[in-house]
Every structure is written in structure tokens, then in C-alpha cells.
Amino acid sequence: MKAGTKIALIFIVLANIMKKSPVYLLLYLFAFAILSQRAWKSLPKLLLWALIVGFSAEIVGTHACLPFGCYEYVNLRPQVFGVGLFVPFAWGIFGAVAYLTASYFFRNWSKRLLFAALLMVIIDLSVDPIMTSWKAWIWKRTTAINWFGIPWTNYLGWFVVSLMFFYLYERFSRVEVEDALLKLGPPIYLLEMLTFMIYAPQSVRFPTEIAFLISLAVILPLYLWRRMK
Q1: Please, what's the largest Cα pairwise distance for the chain?
Q2: What residues are paired with 139 via a beta bridge?
Q3: What is the CA radius of gyration of the chain?
Q4: Residues in CB range of 82: below 8 A, 6 or more apart
């Protein structure tokens, strides 16, 4: 593993340790800036597509209840056009981690993009309960089928929006990721899920524990299969 990748990994680990702090975002941006120099040169394009598509979807979502459902931002500030400013960057961070993990497992582009979008949904099984417990945003109404009060439409929306910016990224980029970085995808993803569970408020600890177990159930069999190939 090259020195730059090692330094980026240190920043990512530190980001997860300080997940409840705004420094989380800065540390990830430092890590991505390093990785974009050599290990993953097209990474800034993925972040840009995630930011544009994710932010646009959030604006539409808060005003038209599509594609996620009816919700509004409350305590998450600052806000731009009624959307918490942190959220578009979170789309980029989670998108990069999910895409890197999916790229380790799948060379076929359609399987890679579909799996990356699925990984994004699993991330939100933790994120949404945590953020709603803090009233970062609130759901104006839910559905009969829901995840601890969060409507199922939210997760369909996450899948569609994620799939959209993953597709645009691959359609308009030359994607090349060093093998040493690809191997870090699954551990980084599981670290994210683990720290969500560790730092979750007690009131929503249970959904984050289930989400972590789901991530293990999805990642570990594929990891063993990949290692045996």
C-alpha cells in the first residue's frame, strides 16, 4: 500500500472516531483529496455527481414529497433552500464508500452500480433513525410499512437517487481505482456501519444494531467468495 493511501486511511479512521463532530466531514475531504491524486483520480467527479444529484433530490423532496416522502429539515443547520448543508456532502461521502466497496466485489458495471445503491440503502437504515432522533429532519407522515417510523418510500428514493449518480459518474468518467484501495472498501464500509451503531443515541440503538448485522450479512459472504476466487 502506497504512503498516500495509508495517510488517507488514517484520516478515514479518525473521521469515524470523531463521527459526532463536524471534523468528520473535513477529515473525509482530506482523505479524498489525497486519494484523488493517484489512487482514485476520478473520485472528485463521483463526489460532484453525488452532490449535484443528491442536493437536487433533497430540494425536490422537501417541497414535493418525492422521491423520499414528506419531510422537512429542522435542527440541521445551516440550510440552503431548506436543505441541511451537510447533507449533499454526506451523499458524496457515503456514495464514495459504497461505490468503492461494490467495485471490490463486482467488475460487471450493472452489478456494481446496483450493489453500490443497495449499500447506500443499508447505510440509511442507520442514518435516518439517528438523524430523526436528533430532529435534524422530521417525517411529516409515514407509511404502513416503515423502518422504525421512517416510510419505505425513503429507502426506495435512496436507491434510485444513488443509482442515478453512480450511473452518471461511470457514464462520464474514466474510472480507475488502484487495487490496494479497492481492498479497503469493505473494511471502511463496515467501519462506517459499526461507528453508526456505537454512537447512536440509546433510543435508536436497536435499528442501528440491526443495520450493522445486515451489513455483515451482505458483505462477509461476498468477501469470502471474493477471497476464494
Answers
A1: 51
A2: 71
A3: 17
A4: 59, 62, 63, 72, 73
Q: Which residues lie closer than 8 Å to 202 by C-beta, 6 or more apart?
A: none
In degrees to the nearest 10, what's the CA dihedral of 171, 127, 18, 55? 40
Enter the C-alpha cell of residue 35: 486519494
Q: Write phi, then psi, for 71 (nearest 5 degrees).
A: -150, 170
- For the record, the C-alpha cell of 83 comes out as 436543505
* Eight-state DSSP code of residue 75: S
What residue type is 207 in one-letter code? Answer: P
Are 153 and 68 a contacting pair, CB within 8 Å?
yes
Q: Give residue 226's pLDDT band: very low, low, confident or very high (50, 70, 90).
A: confident
Amino acid present at 21: S
pTM higher than 0.85 for the full model? yes
CB 45 within 8 A of CB 172: yes
Per-residue pLDDT, 229:
72
Ranges of H-type helices in the chain: 3-17, 23-35, 43-64, 86-105, 109-133, 152-171, 179-182, 185-199, 205-228
Nearest Cα residue to 95 out of 43, 40, 24: 43
Does pLDDT of 155 surpass 90? yes
CA torsion, points 32, 95, 139, 126, in degrees to nearest 10?
A: -90
pLDDT in tens, 99-142: 999 999 999 999 999 999 999 999 999 999 999 999 999 999 99
Residue count of the chain:
229
User: Nine-digit cell at 196?
Assistant: 453508526
